[in-house]
Amino acid sequence: MSLQQTLRIGIVGMGTGGLASAIFIQRLGHHVTIFEKTSQNDLESPVGAGLGIQPIGLTVLKRLGILNDILSHGAKIEHLHSLTREGKTVLDLKYADFNDKLYGIGLHRDALFTSLYNQIYNNDKNENINIVTNANVKNVEIVNGKKGSYISMDNGKKDGPFDL
C-alpha cells in the first residue's frame, strides 16, 4: 500500500510541455486535467514549424514511450554547424566527438504533438488524464484557507479545486 496522496492537477495549455507533463504526472498516480483553448477540430490541423531535439530530449521521449514513433517521422542530425552572416563559425558540434552513439532529430512540431497526443488517447494506462478543449483560461485563483486552486475560463466556467 502506498502512502502517497493522489493529487488533482490542472495544466493550462496542451502544447508539448503540457502533454508530456500530464503523462509523467499521471504515471505517478495523480489525476490530470489539461485545459486547451483550441477546439478538438483545431487539434487535428498541423501547426508550427520544424524543431530539433537534442540527445537528452530523445532520452525523455524514450521514457514517454514515443521515441520509436518520433524516429520514424524525423531526420537524424549528426552535426550542427552555424555561421554568422559574414561566414564566421559560431557553432561546430559533432555529436560523435562526445559519443559515437549520440545524435539529434529534426522533425515537424506537429509530429511531436501527435505522438504525445496519441500516447494519451491510445494507452489505457493514461485513463486519469482529461482534456478540456475550448477552454480559454482567464485566471488561476489560489484560494486562501480552502484546499486548492480554481481555473476560470473566459466564458464564466470555473473548475477545481486543484491541488496544483
The Cα radius of gyration reads 19 Å
Could you spell the SSE succession in H and E letters? Answer: EHEHEHHEEEEHEEEE
Question: Helix- and strand-based class?
Answer: alpha+beta
The total strand number stands at 11
Main beta sheet, described? 3 strands, parallel
Shape: elongated
Low-confidence stretches: none
* Percentage of residues in strands: 25-35%
* Head-to-tail CA distance between termini: 24 Å
**Strand ordering within the main sheet:** 1-2-8
* Average pLDDT, all residues: 90
Report the helical percentage. Answer: 25-40%
| Total number of helices | 5
Note the topology.
Elements: E1 8-12, H1 16-27, E2 31-35, H2 40-43, E3 50-53, H3 55-64, H4 67-73, E4 75-77, E5 79-83, E6 89-94, E7 104-108, H5 109-121, E8 129-132, E9 137-142, E10 149-153, E11 158-162
Parallel strand pairs: 1-2, 2-8
Antiparallel strand pairs: 3-7, 4-7, 5-6, 9-10, 10-11
Helix pairs in contact: 1-5
What does this entry look like structurally?
With 164 residues, the chain is of the alpha+beta class. The chain is 28% helix and 32% strand. The chain contains 5 helices and 11 strands. It has helices at residues 16-27, 40-43, 55-64, 67-73, 109-121, and strands at 8-12, 31-35, 50-53, 75-77, 79-83, 89-94, 104-108, 129-132, 137-142, 149-153, 158-162. Strands 1-2-8 form a 3-stranded parallel sheet, with helices on one face. A 3-stranded antiparallel sheet has the order 3-7-4. A hairpin with a 5-residue loop joins strand 5 and strand 6. The longest helix has 13 residues, at 109-121. The two termini are 24 Å apart. The relative contact order is 0.22. The mean pLDDT is 90.
